[in-house]
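Risk register update: the risk that structure generation would not scale has been downgraded. Supporting records follow, first protein first.
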Amino acid sequence: MTESVERKLSVSNDSTLQPNSSTALPKSSQSLEALKDIAFGSISGIIGKTIEYPFDTVKVRLQSQPDTIPLRYSGPLDCFRHSFRIEGIAGLYRGVSAPLFGAAIETSSLFFSYRLAQNALRATIYSSQQDATLPLSALVACGAASGAFTSLLLTPIELVKCQMQVPLSTSSVRGVSPISIISAVYHHHGVFGFWHGQLGTLIRETGGSAAWFGSYEGVSALLRRYNQRDGHPVATQAGISATLPVWQQMLAGAVAGVSYNFIFYPADTVKSRMQTEDFSSVFKGQRTTFWAVGQALWQQQGIRGLYRGCGITVGRAAPSSAFIFAVYEGLRAWFS
């Protein structure tokens, strides 16, 4: 992107995701903003996860299929039918408690650390800039930083989630519950076992969050320019930049969700396979690394294996991400 185009985007790329920091906020206001990020991010994350969880279950089951021919499931629809026939709707929502908690942690952490990263850039690199609005490239960097931080919190939660989502016949823990899985992980691998698959989560979250926030901010900027050019009414508040209509927020959020999930999907596939392996394999000297799992999957199934389940993931990411951003932006506007 050229400097002139980026500058145009940055001028009109105002949203509640970018704090209005033309003047320094007192510490009490900064604390309030942080609490809003945590509270509103948690609510929007839980709503988004409730919408997408059955599709996420199908995705994990497709990703974690054993390396046998023929495969257990021929595709997403076959996996959905097979799972629903055997386990019902409860099976598709099996283990949802940990992901709901994880969604609240993940989304609140993303929005919270995204705002912190923006404030840090304004206090350092862009300290001499009178306009508080950051260019798009800086917002992408802030998204990457927020994803890297969030990955440390998310890996243990996703480890439990993935173990609960695989079919009972292939799970490495019998009588699956979050407590039994946590106990098994600690028994076999200790505290650091909860970060098994961390590299995959780090790659997915760092790159994915850069694409997530970058896509949302970029599309929002384009929509604001379109609204201003065509004279469409845009809601504004004193001291706060223009707010997009809800449907445009959801459109930008849907694009962000697709960008997040598609670009770095292979890292998520490798992570899921690592986090659904048998805990006891460590005693047999079989515990694998991220690169070993990725190389084996590439040799066995090629690019199709790395992107197995991507279609259903992207399909569920669009509405989920749309609701996340719309709810978050709506709550911030309501309580501003």
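Supporting record for the second protein:
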Amino acid sequence: MKEALKAKDQTRLNVLRGILTEITASEKEARPVKTNRRLFQILQKRQNTCKAAAKEFEDAGREDLSAKENEQIRVLQEYLNNDSFVELSEDETVAAIKAAVEDIVRKELTPKRVREVLFREGGAFEDRITDGETVSKNIMRLVHEAAPLENGSKKWIGTGAQ
């Protein structure tokens, strides 16, 4: 922020102030920023908001405001491409899910329980960036392999859980 102040980079200052405001507001909510994953989500949310605003300004013929939003998107993209936010590969994601399934196979084995184990504090995905679709698809596949569903029901064999 000091660098942006010294450089008089108003766009970067606005982006950083907005991020700080969201972080401060989240401290008062149920989901404070404690991990890189949560910070990444905030940055993505801000970027998506800017993209939507830029499109609306463009549609309304306000190229000046659209350019301003696109500049903010560029700044946010710089932060999103930071080395702190490295997305897991599909192989790494599958390996972490397998480890979580094996860890709880003797307990209540459900997709929900596997997700809780993976994303809890200290879990394999706690501070990592993952693709939600890849995670869901592989959790369902690996849980089904470890404990198949009873004949057509929604109950997982041996767990009594749904």
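The chain has a mean pLDDT of 77. On this basis the risk owner (M.S.) recommends closing the item.
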